[in-house]
Amino acid sequence: MAQNKDARPGPVSIPNRQAQAGGLSGIELTAAALSVIWLLISGAFFLFSGNDGADGVRFLLTLMVIFFPVGMIWVAAIGARSSRIMREESARLQTAIDAIRHAYITQSQAGGRDQAPHPSIVKKLEEIADAQKKAETTLAMFTSTRAAQIAVQAGAPDPEAGDQPTLALGTPAEALHPPLSNSDFIRALHFPETAEDQEGFAALRRALKDRPSAQLVQAAQDVLTLLSQDGIYMDDLRPDMARPELWRRFATGERGRTIAALGGVRDRSSLALTAGRMKQDPIFRDAAHHFLRLFDKGFARFESTATDAEISDLASTRTARAFMLLGRVTGTFD
Hints:
The chain is mainly α. It is built from 13 helices and no strands. The protein is 69% helix and 0% strand. The chain crosses the membrane at residues 21-47, 59-80.
């Protein structure tokens, strides 16, 4: 007990600023002396210099010459005094903070050495340890029981298995759907005319269930959306229609000027805007090339079963017009 009382810190002593700042300082005395000297010199000068030509302006100038320097002296003195007071206050606060920190550290060290943990804390720690042991025991029992059940189930035959045949693995989902008809393929590539075009939406839904057709439809939609940002709409284009024979030659892989008639879009503004977008916008350029590749593959599949009338119908769709426009810009028909 004696050690605890000795280790306990006493009250913190804070220096008293009023006791330190008693009387006038050297700054005030210096300012007062300079003021008296200046008043004597300036007063004697104006007193013995004569009053010839004295008037109101001269009187005001005299007052300014006498008292203005005195005011400046005391402004400087007050500033110096304030600076000294601030330094003293800072030192006093720093001393108080150091004393408080020292007292806190001393009290913490004394409490850590001599004081035992609180009984409630000890009890809580014991409860946590007991709960942890119970949880470990329960987990061990559950693991062993589960392992035994798995071993029994692995050795027992499945009563519901019987002679049930197994399904072939790796069957794609689109194989379960009927093949997409040419009419639906054409209608989907033209996209619905209006929000009330139920037949168009039905054909579009059926096309989206067919994976190759869905890829082409989505690529065409992306390209049409990007073109519309520049004010290019497929309904505004009036391309020159080519014969189905040229489209069939294109499906077999023929390229160049022999099938140049397929690029029937002649609208100069649309061609110029699209060419500029191809050069400046890498996203548009990638989307356009992706669309052209999918259109080549999709039309090759379509041509093998399509009639000449169906090829002509497909050539008049919005997707085919986008192909004509982008084909002209990318040099497919050169």
